[in-house]
Amino acid sequence: MSKSLKPSRRDFLQGAAAVGTATMFHSATSQVFGAESPNERPAFATIGLRNQGWVITRSALAATDVVALADVDANILGATAEKMVKEKKTKKPDTYKDYRKVLDRDDIDAVLIATPDHWHTKIAVEAMYAGKDVYCEKPLTLTIAEGKLIEKVVKETGRVFQVGTMQRSQNNFIKAVALVRSGRIGDLKKVTCGINAFQSSPSIPVAPVPEGLDWDFWLGPAPKVDYRALPKIREGYGGGVPFHSNGHYSFRNWHAYSGGRMTDWGAHHVDIANWAIGDTETGPSKIKPLEFKMATEHKDGYPIAKDCYNSATDFQVQVAMPGGVQMLIKSDGDNGILFEGTKGRFFVNRGKIVGKPVEDLESNPLPSDAMEKVYGGKVTNNHVVNLINGMKARTQPISDVWSHNRMLEICHLSNIAMRLDRELSWDPDKREIIGDEQASTFMARENRKGYEINA
Asked: Where is the Gfo/Idh/MocA-like oxidoreductase bacterial type C-terminal domain (predicted)?
């Protein structure tokens, strides 16, 4: 089709909404993402730029044009735009403090979301309603209820949605899943996810908001609180921010913005464990904290102190999975996943995959297509490119929201169990906590007025 005859993005989105079918999405998107001309590269924008924001932006530049950036911190916003020009030789992207200006643009096909976790759901839902496909960093949600909402909107809008559990696009982990599914360790009996501990913090005083940071906008859906920070500075890309604070790099340590180490590294390793077990459409029956330590004292599940980190620092949580498989999530030992079956065991992390079943591959290799069967097609080590392939085909990528949420429910429930210091029973069909009204209140969280999710 000649360029002059192509539908505008506004025509495409309005037509797709009116027809409401996958066929319409596939047809129109095939025209938008024609592969023959460099001018047909999809247009992306990144919202939230520290840490993973730059990592996924850099990955996207391999196959897209990143035309816009958004961040509530003017310092990292400007630094990232300059970095794209100097290091990647791109045209300088448009920059915005308010992400909604990105969503208003008709020329942007997809957004990459790398904000703190408490912003993920609101931005993702609004992006889908604005006709954008989505890549959102892990953990996808702050609560179990948010996961259910995102699933509803994906289904309603037909958007393609990739979660940033990029270990699903790394060979070590794909091979690990293939080994388990091929029966190389017999019947799987136990899987241990080592996800490292968090450190507690000293008392963190109220401090002046750093110049260039819109603190109220950073808080967004979370409760209004003062900015806190200690003077020690953390270096690195986009550095010059406090090492201890209730924002920037330290947000994962606070219940209001994240789920601590459990939903940070847990979202990676519990995901691979769940993928290998094959329980991506169901879930656990019981979650039991064997031992744990919180960063500060809690009462009725809420931290008493307001001036220090409050997530779990050390823990061992036992999870009863379907088929009698036992999952152990712990903060000590090697970071990675140990699979144990009736015929052997092996360990995998980002740097290695070791054990006798792995050694046996030299004489008895996996079938040539074993990893492709796990991955659902040709393996790409670029997780963002896997999204782009899904956008072209109008199919969900390797880290879809449904399997991610089933896994993340384990992490959320583990956090609830530790905060309340008791075992929880879970109905994986109804996706509800059984017989514990207090624990059930932790499955959802109300957004601050003015930052509600309109869905």
From this structure: 203-452
